[in-house]
Amino acid sequence: MDVKLDPSRDDLPLLANTGHILVKHYVLDLDVDFKSQIIEGSIVLFFEPGNRFKKQSSSIEETCQSESNEACKFRMPEPCHNPVTHTSTFSSKMGYDGFSVCGKGVKDTSGKDGNHDNWEQASGISSSKYCCDTGNHGSEDFLLVLDCCDLSVLKVEEVDVAAVPGIEKFARSPTLTVVSEELRNQIIRELVTLPADRWREQLDYYARCSQAPGCGELLFDTDTWSLQIRKTGTQAATDFPHAIRIRYRTKPQGRSVTWTSDQSGRPCVYTMGSPINNRALFPCQEPPVAMSTWQATVRAAASFVVLMSGENSAKPTQLHEGCSSWHYYVTMPMPASTFTIAVGSWAEMKPETCLSNDLATERSLSSSEADFRYVGVCGHMEYPCRFQNASATTQEIIPHRVFAPVCLKGACQETLLRLIPPCLSAAHSVLGTHPFSRLDVLIVPANFPSLGMASPHIIFLSQSTLTGMSHLCGTRLCHEIAHAWFGLAIGARDWTEEWLSEGFATHLEDVFWARAQQLAPREAQEQQELRACLRWRRLQDEVRNSPEEMQVLRPNKEETGCVSDSGSSVIKHGLNPEKAFMQVHYLKGYFLLRFLAKRLGDDTYFSFLRKFVHTFHGQLILSQDFLQMLLENIPEEKRLELSVENIFRDWLESSGIPQPLQRERGAAAACGLARRVSAEVAKWIRVNRRPRKRKRRETEEVFEKLLPDQLVWLLECLLEQKTLKPRTLQSLERTYHLPEQDAEVRHRWCELVVKHRYTKAYKDVERFLQEDQNVIRHN
């Protein structure tokens, strides 16, 4: 089962056998040790055999067809109830020493490489012979496969949930009086299927069960990409223990988290959106169909703040001097890849004066917003859903907090803090109910590889967004807020369809930002047209300079969403290092949605989008789910040869520039903001051509004030000039105060400086490389 892949080119394997058994809930209990750069502890997994996405079939084609048919047929929930935020903590008797954790947990009995393996020791079976039947069709033991790498697994054991006081009420069968595997599994089956209005009780019993004693070690083995677990004599997934505990520790070089220092020089660690997701943070089921809930208790030195994907605004509980514990939970099932954690010496940033719109507000809907409310039962698996909570649907601005190193306090107060309320309100005005009940925003260290990353209840933002005016910070914030709907509440069932997340967020960021600025319709249209022009230039450049096979938005074509009988699959180009620098899913997805919005008209399109969000929130989708519903809502006279097949052919399954986009851009007239840039470019070319000693009759050029996006375009146009004289570059710098502009503008300025060897501005290049490398990856 050890998959050999070329790490520079190959696909990312997802080996978890989700076709046979699904994790429904994780309970993590972890210690963070900054001295050793290790996170250590345990994770308890609660299982439910089977996979609602997968029909039993003998061929992958049949599996794909059944998955496509079942995409929208989730178990219908009972009326949902919105959870009230609370914090619960658990006691710990572990010790603490300086910057290290409160305790060391289980003693490591592994070899020098820290990779313990009890399979061969306990059973005498060679690790090369672990090709057991992972399903329930043969006579060999059932094999549980979890996605896992860069972890030292110390012990795997079954959890004796029957030992939990009061748990007997979940033992429904009167015939089960003796503690047995069947009794323990029945208890878990009842626990994981509790109705949504009993979510508090469910979380409490998950926590109690996670602390129950073990009742027998399980055999396990690890390879490069997975952890395999089995119980001797257990041949079917339905009989496999439904609650297991894995004791493990991360490795300092593990690729799911980054150990570094923040801008104040203090140590910190955070999940940085690795291509391998969270499998080097905890053993899990990575395929998106394995939607689960989680709760986590994390202990760290008292000087640190723990932030995490969680519905509650956790506060620290002091365990003993110098050590604190933090507890978070989520009740909305999501893929394990969306779990995020950040531990550091963050300070909460608060506005110096209370802003009138800086509080979460609730108000009645006006008649113009009445279509945001769709009466009816949600289509997702059951959980406490905000879309069914009357007060949540009217909440324009959800509660939010901002964290950053103390040294960035001024920048946060000047830029970020005042932007969050209008951006949240704008998003609500476009899409309606916020899927998540609260939001933390963290300014991450300078080595963060992108401008932002959204996870449930938390957004990471780069420090690069805080420089210059509010434009870059506002647009990026809007982009990440949009992911709450597209990417999180509605996820792609096949990760190769990244455009379903990034294309939507890119398209919506312009709409949100225009509303946040309260622009007049004409002004908003001009701004969006200018950004379309910039993205068109970027897409053309990307297509010219990237491999054709990586320009396709739906690379698996008719096999999109297909998995093996066990549920394993691969993510095409998932490990290709070039992928991190590519924007094709953002740009082609954006232009497709822009094309469709123009065809329908904005009012019709966004009305449909609200309906789509209400229909599919809490679910996983494929491209056809969106396109089929869209076409069903388009009047016949506006459809004009649009079909799912044509869109697949022209936009999603071909490389290069889509033909409809070529025609549209060829016929498009430049917007007023773009024409103004062209006029300014012509002025600078004239200035650059003039001799040092000018004739007296020549008049000085008068340059207009430009918006940040206009400045980006201006500098990109000037980059196409073969030569710019030093005095021209000096005049450019002084006219637009380029070192003080946002990171996007300074990026282009640094390119000009390097290209023309303008040594006087090399200090700007040095600063940019030290503080804003993520902008290079973004462009």
UniProtKB/TrEMBL annotation:
| One Pfam family per UniProt | Leuk-A4-hydro_C
What is the required cofactor set for this protein? Zn(2+)
Among its keywords, does the record have Ribonucleoprotein? Answer: no
Its signal peptide is none
Q: Note whether Metal-binding occurs among the keywords.
A: yes
The record's InterPro entries line, in alphabetical order, gives: Aminopeptidase_N-like_N_sf, AOPep, ARM-type_fold, M1_LTA-4_hydro/amino_C_sf, Peptidase_M1_C, Peptidase_M1_dom, Peptidase_M4/M1_CTD_sf
GO MF terms here are:
aminopeptidase activity
By its UniProt entry, which SMART domains does this protein fall under? Leuk-A4-hydro_C
Classify the source by domain of life. Eukaryota
Q: Which UniProt keywords apply?
A: Aminopeptidase, Hydrolase, Metal-binding, Metalloprotease, Protease, Zinc
The UniProt record lists the Peptidase M1 leukotriene A4 hydrolase/aminopeptidase C-terminal domain at 672-777
- Give the protein family: Belongs to the peptidase M1 family.
Name of the molecule in the record: Aminopeptidase O isoform X11
Origin species, per record, is: Equus przewalskii
